[in-house]
Design a protein that fits this description.
- Helix content is about 40%, strand content about 10%.
- The chain is α+β, with helices and mostly antiparallel strands.
- It folds into two domains: about 5-45; about 55-120, no CATH class.
- Strands 2-1-3 form a three-stranded antiparallel beta sheet, with no helix packed on it.
- Helix 2 runs antiparallel to helix 4 (about 75-90) and helix 4 (about 75-90) runs antiparallel to helix 5.
- The longest helix is centred in the middle third of the chain and has 15 residues, at about 75-90.
- The protein is elongated, with a radius of gyration of 23 Å.
Length: about 140
């Protein structure tokens, strides 16, 4: 049972249609489920690629992932840490967003750490800057 995506030229929306078979999709006229329009054109569907956690982390470690990293530039650290968070796919919470916002504004990681002592946890240090760069 194929699902095809179409662009409706009547209501300007992208819609997905589920067909009973490939033959059905080839022989029948698509109708927009939103507006009933018949002026639809096939669109290229997005593709999702499943990757292992190891593959995602390897991608972070390759030269292209680290090429723009400057540990002395807070904005560079924030870009890398956001990329790392996106690769892991985990929600790191409001504290992470606050730290990233402050880094992106150019604030020094040490001053962020001093103003947010609960963020460091038992191990101390945020894992930002210096030699202890890592994932919280």
């Amino acid at each position: 049972m194929p699902i095809y995506e179409y662009t409706c030229h009547d209501c300007q929306r992208r819609v997905s249609l589920l067909w009973r078979s490939f033959a059905d999709a080839a022989s029948r006229e698509p109708i927009c489920p939103r507006c009933g329009g018949r002026d639809l054109s096939r669109a290229v569907s997005r593709v999702a690629v499943l990757r292992s956690e190891e593959s995602r982390l390897d991608n972070l470690a390759d030269d292209s992932g680290l090429s723009g990293l400057d540990e002395n530039d807070p904005k560079s650290l924030a870009r890398f840490m956001r990329k790392m968070a996106n690769e892991t796919g985990e929600d790191l919470g409001p504290e992470f967003e606050e730290v990233m916002g402050r880094l992106e504004a150019g604030e020094d990681p040490e001053s962020i750490e001093q103003s947010m002592p609960d963020l460091a946890g038992e191990g101390g240090g945020m894992g930002v800057g210096g030699d202890d760069f890592g994932v919280m």
